[in-house]
Amino acid sequence: MWIWGSFIFLIIIFLALDLGVFNRKDHVIRTREAAIWTSVWVSVAMGFSGVIYWLFQSGLIENPTGLTPGNAVLKYITGYLIELSLSIDNVFVIAVIFSSFAIPAKYQHRVLFWGILGAIVFRAIMIVFGVALINKFEWIIYVFGVFLLYTAYKMLKSDAEDYKPKESFVFKQVKKIYPLTTAMDGHKFFIRRMGIKAATPLFVALIVIELTDILFALDSIPAILAITSDPFIVFSSNILAILGLRSMYFLISRMLAKFRYIHYSLVVILAFVGLKMLFSHFLHLEEWVSLTVILVALLGGIAASLLKPEKTELD
What we know:
Elements: H1 2-22, H2 31-58, H3 69-100, H4 105-136, H5 140-157, H6 169-177, E1 190-193, E2 196-199, H7 201-225, H8 231-243, H9 245-252, H10 262-278, H11 287-307
Antiparallel strand pairs: 1-2
């Protein structure tokens, strides 16, 4: 258990340094700063693969699935890349939410910080239940597989631009439960007006982002469970990818329009892991195959977007 405790303590240290030191003052996150922090988080995640190798080689952590150190590292990296790639759709939705509630750029990082903190807690709970279900009921893997294929189909047919946060079920329920105001006072989530405590747009955006992330987790966690059911690998790869989501948002949210085919990359990834789950008892794929498919899908979507940019009205 000390391994789990140490990892969680490390995450708490990262979060405390993020908000309490590096981003203590509200400011607009520029592209250069976002690029530096994205590089830092990716480097930390990739460096952690060395810790994974050491833990499985030394036997310091439980190994219920009997993984070799090398295979554990491959599964960790594959799970991390799956979560990171599926977060791209999450980035687009976050951008729409911020725009809809007119959240000033200088306060967006603080909203995302608390959103990520909540996401870590909810995902930890979902991972524990997901691993427990797979270990107790092997047939549940087929349910997850079908769900991922259905999600891939919905993603293929849906248009993300149709998403309207102010018309969502979550926003309507928050509006019924708590008084809302369009006024803001710095980065405060609540303010008092005429003796009434009301939630600011920052709080509403936080709640919508939080619950939206839970919906995204319904896709990403089964996707990682298709790679491995080892709880520590699933948890660490998922959480480290989530920690980098904030800086990745500020880095790529302004460039999403350029990468219009990346959406199809995510469809391919979800469909692949869904099929892998469905045929898991009949067909065993080496981990490097899964890793290759994910990388090719992502690079293919980026390359197609760059080689075939969207036509403008003047074209």
